[in-house]
Amino acid sequence: RKGPIMPAYTATDSWSAAITVAAGDIIQNTGRRLLLVCPVTPAADGDAVDLHPDQPGFAFDRATSIRVRSGSRLEGSFKIIRGL
After folding, report:
1. Which of these, 3, 2, 12, 24, lies nearest to 78 by C-alpha position?
2. Is 23 exposed, middle or buried (0-12, 13-18, 19+ CB in 10 A)?
3. How far apart are the C-alpha atoms of 71 and 83, rounded to whole Å?
4. Which residues pair with 26 in a beta bridge?
5. DSSP code string of 7-59
6. Is residue 3 part of a domain?
7. Which residues pair with 76 in a beta bridge?
8. Other CB atoms closer than 10 Å to residue 1's CB: what's the count?
9. Which of 2, 15, 42, 44 could pair with 67 as two cysteines, CB 3.0-4.6 Å apart?
10. Is residue 2 included in any domain, yes or no?
11. Residue 1's pLDDT is what?
């Protein structure tokens, strides 16, 4: 059996391109910076969910597209865990 696929991403202070996620996929903050995760297009801070470095991440309950940015001017990093 294959394990989960976990592509890694870098978050800047600008919104990322759309990232497609499936129901059950998990986003995990792997850096030291706050991340903003937005399922709305166009992405906006007011519609985003905060994902702190010390949080375990969260799972998506449906397929959607997200955009992610760092909560500061410094880069952050995250993974999307797929296929669990």
Report:
1. 12
2. exposed
3. 28
4. 59, 81
5. -EEEE-SSPPPPEEE-TT-EEEE-SSS-EEEE-SSS--GGG-EEE-TTS--EE
6. no
7. 11
8. 2
9. 15
10. no
11. 52
Q: What does the pLDDT look like over 23-72, one tens digit per residue?
A: 999 999 999 999 999 999 999 999 999 999 999 999 999 999 999 999 99
Total domain count, the chain: 1
Type of residue at 75: E
Q: In this structure, what CATH number is given to the domain that contains residue 32?
A: 2.60.120
Asked whether the beta carbons of 21 and 81 are under 8 A apart, the reply is: no
Partners of 36 in the beta sheet?
Answer: 50, 69
* pLDDT of the residue at 6: 84
Q: Is residue 27 part of a domain?
A: yes
Is residue 1 a part of any domain in this protein? Answer: no
In what side-by-side order are the strands of the sheet with 35-38? 19-21, 64-70, 35-38, 49-51
CB 50 within 8 A of CB 70: no
